[in-house]
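Report of the visiting student (M.T.), summer placement. My assignment was to run the structure pipeline on a short list of targets and document each run. The first record concerns Selenoprotein O.
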Amino acid sequence: RQADGRKVLRSSIREFLCSEAMFHLGIPTTRAGTCVTSDSKVIRDIFYDGNPKSERCTVVLRIASTFIRFGSFEIFKPTDEYTGRKGPSVNRNDIRIQMLDYVISTFYPEIQEAYSDNRNNFFFVYITPTIPARLVAEWQCVGFCHGVLNTDNMSIVGLTIDYGPFGFMDRYDPEHICNGSDNTGRYAYNKQPEICKWNLGKLAEALVPELPLEISELILEEEYDAEFEKHYLWKMRRKLGLIQLELEEDSKLVSELLETMHLTGGDFTNIFYLLSSFSVDSDPSELEDFLDKLTSQCASVEELKVAFKPQMDPR
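After the run finished, the structure tokens were exported:
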């Protein structure tokens, strides 16, 4: 793509539709305001098959309360001992203090008011579970894969940003990769919770000395995993209609359902959609018809052979 920074019409429409879908699914996200197409054209290999075509350039106007990201704080990064690289504002703690003051007072005023003496600690306590842990739990529950979850694509106010090589899973596959250039599977569907936690660790490093690392790392270990599991199970219970009674074995039920969907190649979205149409008061004679509908959303033996084909390089 020659790194020309241009976006084309098809990917812009896709981005516009997805962010609006996410908003109406109740998932925190930036919104799409307008989609403007120009007469300028670029060459793109749409299917990466050696057949490039000319396409129109397009701009999506994206709306959010702020576009400050975790990566915004990495401008203070000290010199890396291996690469020699450093942030453009290294040693400028005055700017770091300004950024923290702005973010907390503007977007988290309740923390500013309630914890003025220990504000930075409580800021990290608050954002660790509420921003990445709950957001990624929401993604996992609708089968959304972001595709490029680096620190620059994590919003400081917990919105879904950067709709680049995203994708929603069809056939359930915990190792699904939506980004064609993600050769190692770093941003695979089942890695998203882990990578968001890693990004939080990088944010913690970027906040030193305003927040000592030993404090932020302890907060991260105590809060993140517990909050993710809690919110994920809360959401999954509602997807399954388990709203009147919460049992300890609900987590095992969800795991076994997903394992069954994986082994049968079940469609993630359609299976849940069909389950929502099943009535516990229905006639037992209707069960067979319902099961037929469920199995119609599973893959054929031939499709499963392809899906489970070993991915290791033949060499």
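The chain has a mean pLDDT of 92. The CA atoms of residues 89 and 95 lie 8 Å apart. I thank the supervising group for their guidance throughout the placement.
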